[in-house]
Amino acid sequence: MKKSGSSKASAQRMQHAPLATPTDLDARATRDVSGAMNAILADVFALYLKTKNFHWHMSGPNFRDYHLLLDEHGDQLFAMTDPIAERIRKIGGSTLRSIGHIARLQRVDDNDAEYVEPTDMLAELREDNKALAARLREAHEVCDERHDIATASLIEEWIDETERRTWFLFETMRRGDSSGH
């Protein structure tokens, strides 16, 4: 029969032990891909919250259409979070642990303004989604360099979804001219 003190010490050691997730990717690939994808995950969480913020604070004559559009976009962004985090874990990396961790890694600017014009909301989200697509491409390059085909494949789908959101935001803001402004 084991002493309770030794089982407690064993449990504490297990909490600090590295996770040995089996993968054929080398340690450098795990480190680089996990780093790129954690930054993407932080951006997706930040963009999700910004999208929901604008969804909740939308007003004006196009309220219903914009409100529903941003709700749909928020759902798409949130749906990305678990697959990103699980992919990081599948290759042996660790993922985001807190709001503070997200804040340290995110590259999407927050918008805490009391009031934002609806067209400014859409323009800001359009540019944020456009930037996310570019960052996803950068992460894809890391995956290509490290031979992580599975993560690259997922990223390709997310690029398409992100470009679609960018396109919808662009088209929603058009006023009959070809510039989108």
UniProtKB/TrEMBL annotation:
Ferritin/DPS domain mapped to chain residues = 36-172
Checking InterPro entries in the record gives: DPS_DNA-bd, Ferritin-like, Ferritin-like_SF, Ferritin_DPS_dom
- SUPFAM superfamilies noted in UniProt: Ferritin-like
Name the coiled-coil region(s).
Answer: none
Q: Kindly list the GO molecular function terms attached to this UniProt entry.
A: ferric iron binding
The UniProt annotation puts the region (Disordered) at 1-25
Position of the signal peptide: none
Task: Kindly list the residue ranges recorded as spanning the membrane.
Answer: none
Q: Where is the composition biased (Polar residues)?
A: 1-13
> PANTHER family, alphabetically?
DNA PROTECTION DURING STARVATION PROTEIN, GENERAL STRESS PROTEIN 20U
Q: Which family does it belong to?
A: Belongs to the Dps family.
| Protein name, entry field | DNA starvation/stationary phase protection protein
Q: Which organism is it from?
A: Rhodanobacter denitrificans
Question: What lineage does UniProt assign to this protein's organism?
Answer: Bacteria, Pseudomonadati, Pseudomonadota, Gammaproteobacteria, Lysobacterales
